[in-house]
Design a protein that fits this description.
Layout (H helix, E strand, L loop, with lengths): L8 E3 L7 H11 L5 E3 L3 H7 L28 H5 L7 E5 L3 H5 L17 E2 L6 E3 L2 E2 L2 H10 L7 E5 L4 H12 L5 E3 L3 H7 L3
Parallel strand pairs: 1-2, 3-4, 3-7, 7-8
Antiparallel strand pairs: 5-6
Length: 193
């Protein structure tokens, strides 16, 4: 895509969805510091009456050197070691039915949740599809489930998409220790140990 690591990259999708935050998370994990998400996505851009184009943009290929940032990644083993930790919060941002183990879909080997996980559906951090809630409201909702800034927050969902959106919200609030469990429930449920 012609990204070298020297330029600023702005990701967007249709609204404040999950694709742009996950792309930003992956780029951040690769060691890139200048990524952003367009708040509200393309929907907010259009609503503001800003210019749009249908022309294809082509950038010459460039070398991008990956310098992995493991401090923002939670693996299955990492999460498992923090199940009973007083200094960590495992935050499940899936739907209430998924959290309760009542999701009728057959996408995973098992239904349920990670032991000790607290629930706050990712959409509760949004005011509407185009915008996060006000900072004070975001902080209030997180405080209510014990996800306070002094704790390490391990966010998960089904496969890390919704968790990436919540990860970004926590970053915007200034949380210093947040990790995205990218494998999320899909990976956890497959591990029978």
């Amino acid at each position: 895509l012609g990204i070298t690591g020297a330029e600023q990259v702005v990701f967007y999708d249709e609204s404040m969805g999950t694709k742009a935050p996950k792309a930003l998370w992956f780029l951040t994990y690769a060691g890139y510091r200048w990524g952003r998400v367009l708040h509200g996505g393309f929907g907010a851009w259009q609503k503001a009456g800003l210019p749009v184009s249908t022309e294809k943009t082509v950038r010459p290929a460039r070398t991008f050197n990956v310098n992995a940032n493991p401090a923002i990644l939670a693996s299955t083993d990492y999460v498992a070691k923090r199940i009973r930790s007083a200094t960590a919060v495992i935050l499940d941002v899936r739907s209430r039915d998924e959290y309760a183990g009542k999701d009728p879909s057959q996408h995973c080997a098992r239904s349920g949740r990670i032991p000790g996980a607290v629930w706050l559906e990712w959409t509760q951090l949004l005011e509407n599809p185009l915008s996060y809630r006000q900072i004070s409201d975001l902080q209030k909702r997180l405080n209510e489930v014990g996800a306070t800034p002094d704790k390490e927050i391990l966010v998960y969902c089904h496969q890390g998409n919704r968790a990436s959106n919540s990860y970004l919200a926590l970053q915007l609030l200034g949380y210093a220790r947040v990790r995205n469990y990218v494998g999320s429930w899909h990976e956890w449920a497959a591990r029978l140990d």
